[in-house]
Amino acid sequence: MTETLFKHPRYPLLVVISGPSGVGKDAALERMKERQLPYYFVVTATTRAPRPGEVHGRDYLFLSKDQFAEMIEQDELLEYAVVYDDFKGVPKQQVRDALNSGLDVLMRLDVQGAATIRAAIPGAVTIFISTVSEDELAERLATRKTETAESLKLRVATARREMQRVREFDYYVINRQGELDQTVDKIMAIIEAEHCRTHQRQISL
Amino acid sequence: MTETLFKHPRYPLLVVISGPSGVGKDAALERMKERQLPYYFVVTATTRAPRPGEVHGRDYLFLSKDQFAEMIEQDELLEYAVVYDDFKGVPKQQVRDALNSGLDVLMRLDVQGAATIRAAIPGAVTIFISTVSEDELAERLATRKTETAESLKLRVATARREMQRVREFDYYVINRQGELDQTVDKIMAIIEAEHCRTHQRQISL
User: Fold this and answer.
1) I need a surface site. Which of A66, A177, B117, B137 has the fewest CB within 10 A?
2) What sign has the CA pseudo-torsion B173, B176, B180, B185?
């Protein structure tokens, strides 16, 4: 008799957490880190200056524009975008190393960035996070002190357009007010279920 | 502003728990009932006589062969099979009622029965339960007091053939010795993740 019944190793996953600004993507990832879940959380590279309290390697990889340009030239970014005058992106080598160590890799991306990853890596698991309603999203964005009335209006309009892209994503999770742990539980269930698929996704970068 | 961002009601699922004899399907379902999980567990109809302690409506629906024949004629069975001289099957109306009440419906079927359901109801979620190895499966079957050496050999051979059909299933869960709760947790994660799919499965009977 053979020892193994069915060859089914646990391939590490590339999980993209996305959704409009204000739905709680960062809060969900922060809660996952607090709960010390056994995932690798991607550290985004950026050319902007660190804000007070931000730590290189933990919050962001703070790079010079020269360094960033070199990564673009070497095709060493999975995805990148210009935000105002600065760049941010996902270093390929970091993700490659994490996957090679067998860890599931989680990254937070805006809706456009998620679309880029999906096109480049069809095996990525994409999760769209949402609020219950547009009103709640507007309220959440309004409580951000940094928002002027104009930029708030712009963000709400952008969020509304981005919601129309939800069907491009594999999964849809509503992050209800005050239920962040349930949101995290759903993301964990999705990851566990993906590992149980008979036909597993396999990532190569 | 519209109130709802994306119409995504929680459609009830039809979940088939399958796999070779001896992998622990019944034990997993029993544990789920003990944990009082909010699922509807299908009660199989059978024409065989109740064994001591078995309760009609809880363990099985005990039907006469006449009653069973009538259900076949009325196309009121989702699936049925002849086991030795007796019949067993899944009453359609029971599943329909449970789904209409909004509950996820779980049923235990052998590998052949699962294939029948998959063909009839493409939206069904199919989970293949397995042991780690063929040796462990043979051991588990051997500990069943009811098995003669001949019938044991037959079951092991059948299990080996059935393992070859695992790729027809959506999910694959290894039920490790002594880790029944982890097996149940995985089944629960699969159900939760299926509810989070952007493109949900919808069942109609």
Assistant:
1) A66
2) negative
